[in-house]
Write a structure and sequence with these properties.
- With 76 residues, the protein is of the alpha+beta class.
- It has one domain (3-72): 2-Layer Sandwich (Double Stranded RNA Binding Domain).
- The protein has helices at residues 3-13, 54-72; strands at residues 16-19, 30-35, 46-51.
- A three-stranded antiparallel sheet has the order 1-2-3, covered by helices on one side.
- It is elongated, with a radius of gyration of 14 Å.
Length: 76
């Protein structure tokens, strides 16, 4: 997943991306936050995924998103 693909997916699902402040050691963390939509009477789920890059955090969120939809029996 490229940075452009990650940002595009987050935009499509209404997700947000956060970056921690840089430390003296240069380490940073990324957090992707996505809420799945309501499905019938089921409330949406909040997905919070961490990564050392924006692509890693977004890919982790997308993996969780896909697993939730698979568990519900639909491809979304």
């Amino acid at each position: 997943m490229t940075a452009e693909q990650a940002m595009s997916w987050l935009q499509q699902v209404g997700g947000e991306l956060y970056q921690s402040r840089h430390t003296d050691a240069g380490h940073t963390a990324w957090v992707a936050v996505v809420r799945t939509p309501w499905l019938a009477a089921r409330r949406g789920k909040l997905i919070i995924a961490l990564g050392s890059t924006l692509q890693e955090a977004t890919a982790a969120a997308e993996d969780q998103w896909q697993k939730l939809w698979q568990d519900l029996g639909g491809a979304h």
